[in-house]
Amino acid sequence: MSRSVHGGRHELGQNFLHHTPTLDRIVRLVRETDGPILEIGAGDGALTRRLAPLGRDVLAVDLDEHRVRRLRNRLPAVTVRCADALRTPLDRPVVVGNLPFHLTTPILRRLLTAGVWAEAILLTQWEVARKRAGVGGRTMLTAQTAPWFAFTLHGRVPADGFRPKPSVDGGLLTISRRRVPLVDPAERAGYEEFVRRVFTGRGRGIEQILTTVAPRPWRAILKAAGIPRSALPRDLTPQQWAAVWNAWPGNR
């Protein structure tokens, strides 16, 4: 096989999915969505071949020009482009992809800050999928974006379900854009900074941390939101974060 001008498999971070149960599950999740589809990192087309029969407009992108050429020949009904996932417009309602593991974080950050997509169905490293979905506690990035996006974990994918086999398992994650945001989008920058300050603030519980970050009568606000005073920032649900922000007079 010819080497891509962008490098070999290691440079492109390619681990191709061949785990049939996961491929079938991704297609089932896509069937629950509507509209044109953007597939990121099409690779050898294991998923593309399953998306093509859905009868929807599919745009598949990959950085390897040789794989793009072969996929075009095999699937003439699909639009296949040689393109960088970090530069491809996110202007389709549905985004699907087996994300290159070394690019997972930048692609996720881009998805959460750009485009007009409605549903994203993504295969990432297991730990990334677990953290984004809030299993075992929410991360700062998840808390910062949860008022506008809902994260759901759909299962673990064994490492031997990829070829070549990576050193870690994968995880199937969906991200849905909320139709009704929990926080006014105009306040997003202020809200994200507030969450950052709380996550990095000092204190033994959320009340102490909030008081350090912005002295206010937090006890009543926490009680109204059903948040224990001893909770940690990672313990708060998206609805509780929104309640704290929306009830705090200092956010305006």
Structure commentary:
- With about 250 residues, this protein is α/β, with parallel strands linked by helices.
- It folds into 2 domains: about 10-175, Vaccinia Virus protein VP39 (Rossmann fold, 3-Layer(aba) Sandwich), CATH 3.40.50.150; about 185-250, Helicase, Ruva Protein, domain 3, CATH 1.10.8.
- It is built from 11 helices and 9 strands.
- The strands form 2 sheets. It has a 7-stranded mixed beta sheet.
- Helix 5 (about 105-110) links the parallel strand 5 and strand 6.
- The longest helix has 12 residues, at about 20-30.
- It is elongated.
- The chain starts with 8 loop residues before the first helix and ends in a 5-residue tail after the last helix.
- The relative contact order is 0.12.
Shape: elongated
CATH architecture label name of the largest domain: 3-Layer(aba) Sandwich
Query: What is the averaged pLDDT score?
Result: 92
Q: What is the number of E strands?
A: 9
CATH class of the largest domain: Alpha Beta
CATH-assigned fold name of the largest domain: Rossmann fold
Q: What is the N-to-C succession of helices and strands?
A: HEHEHEHEEHEHHEEEHHHH
Name the structural class: alpha/beta
The largest sheet, given as strand count, sense and whether it forms a barrel, is: 7 strands, mixed
Specify the CATH homologous superfamily of the largest domain: Vaccinia Virus protein VP39
Percentage of residues in strands: 15-25%
- Largest beta sheet: strand ordering: 4-3-2-5-6-9-7
Point out poorly predicted stretches: 6-12
What Rg do the Cα atoms give?
20 Å
The number of distinct structural domains comes to 2
* Helix content class: 25-40%
CA distance, first residue to last residue? 58 Å
Number of helical segments with 4 or more residues: 11
Domain Ribosomal RNA adenine methylase transferase N-terminal: 22-179
InterPro entries: KsgA/Erm (IPR001737), rRNA_Ade_methylase_Trfase_N (IPR020598), SAM-dependent_MTases_sf (IPR029063)
GO biological process, one term: methylation
Family: Belongs to the class I-like SAM-binding methyltransferase superfamily. rRNA adenine N(6)-methyltransferase family.
